[in-house]
Amino acid sequence: MISNHPLIYLASRSPRRKKLLQQMNLEFKVISVEIDESRQGNESPLKMVKRLAAEKLAEARKSIDEGIIITADTTVVLDGEILGKPGNENEAKEMLSILSGKIHTVYTGFAVCNTRKEKTIVDYVKTKVTFRELGKKEIQDYVKTRSPMDKAGAYGIQDDFGAVFVKKINGDYYNVVGLPVSRLYTNLLKVL
After folding, report:
1. Which residues pair with 31 in a beta bridge?
2. Fewer Cβ close by (within 10 Å): the C or N end of the chain?
3. Is 95 exposed, middle or buried (0-12, 13-18, 19+ CB in 10 A)?
4. Where are the domains of the chain?
């Protein structure tokens, strides 16, 4: 367990990331950062999530003088195409339809910074997720709940109906939720 640490800041609006840090028994404050999360040119999904985590960290450092800052960015990739958060219900339905019956990859890039020691680690985790075949009505019913609207790939594996779409995963479950807690924990230990 991590104890006697400087104040930790989670620079994320994600309720899932907040819950995961609480699960780790960490005391922290949540702050919000705004950056452009667009893909730059043909950058790979891996480069994109690591860059966005680093940019969120740079933005958070503007308002935090001392402490440990955690940032993250998660994306879903199918056949080289990045599936971010859907912009509307039709996009959510389309994303779920193309994920149906296929294997996709979830990437989370994250940054951990101890401002006092000037130690920063930017890392990532990827997980393969297999969806079962989805019915049109269950996709429509799920989208009606509005749950997919704030999630990359238009689904949540953790605590809503999106969990029943997942046939199997190969890799870190918590990465699919939005924060690979085991890798995050080991990196936190390195910056303390």
Report:
1. 11
2. N
3. buried
4. 8-191
Report how far residue 76's alpha carbon sits from residue 83's, in angstroms, rounded to the nearest whole number.
5
Residue 48 confidence class, pLDDT cut points 50, 70, 90:
very high
* Candidates 73, 141, 150, 160; catalytic one: 73
Q: Above pLDDT 90, what percent of the chain?
A: 93
> Model confidence over 119-142: pLDDT tens digits?
999 999 999 999 999 999 999 999
Q: What is the pLDDT of residues 149-159, one digit of tens each?
A: 999 999 999 96
CATH assignment of 8-191, given 3.60.20.10, 3.90.950.10, 3.40.50.300, 3.40.50.1220? 3.90.950.10
The CA distance from 51 to 40, in Å, is 10
Strands 103-114 and 119-131: antiparallel
Clarify whether 141 is annotated catalytic: no
